[in-house]
Amino acid sequence: AAQEEINNSVRRHGILQSITVRYIEAEDIYQVISGERRYHAACVAGLPELPCWLQSPKEKDILLHQLVENWVRLDMHPYDLADALTRLRDANGYSQRDLARETGKSEGEISKILALLDLDPGVQKIAREDATGTITRRHLYALRTLPAEEQLSILERIQRESISATDTEELAAKRTAALSGRKRRGAPVSHYRFNTAQASVTITFRKKDVSTDDILGALEEVRMQLRTPPPDAVPSSAE
How does pLDDT run across 88-107, given as a tens digit for each residue? Predict the structure, then answer.
């Protein structure tokens, strides 16, 4: 649909902005760096020529130029964007900070996009094959906050019920809060740490309220176990 819009525009107005190309001497051709859709629209319109901006970028910079232009001009598919950032990172040995600097985006946005590659494989497959545009970046960002084992079922529900990105974010937030509450309702745990001249000793109790007698009793049990260790006892330092 986007290409057809450009085709119609070029038929009516011609090419209003130059495409960017580089000359490959070994093949005696010009390669499009950015403006591929405009180039195809010019072919469809039967234009005998089109304006080009000739550049000579380094090989490693071509992907960057293409990524930056498409990111600005187009609503890129989330995984096209994630894959392009990954290729750019791996080809140039970039950190996330480097990617942010080169693309003009924030480190937080770069991190969120790359995190899409950590989603459940089934979720990634469905999202990559989605040609409708109904699974947006916001949908996927929301799914990323959920446990991996729940992501696919939630995505299937999104598709089945046509849930919006805003409602998906609310759904994920409620589910995350519910899971956190479930963890908090578990048995309380208390930790006590003591430093001696030769060691640090930490005692963990599976209850909230612990008395001095509880601590002394636990230490006495440890002392008795050390005096008569079971046959299969293994020192923790050897684990």
Answer: 888 788 888 988 888 888 88
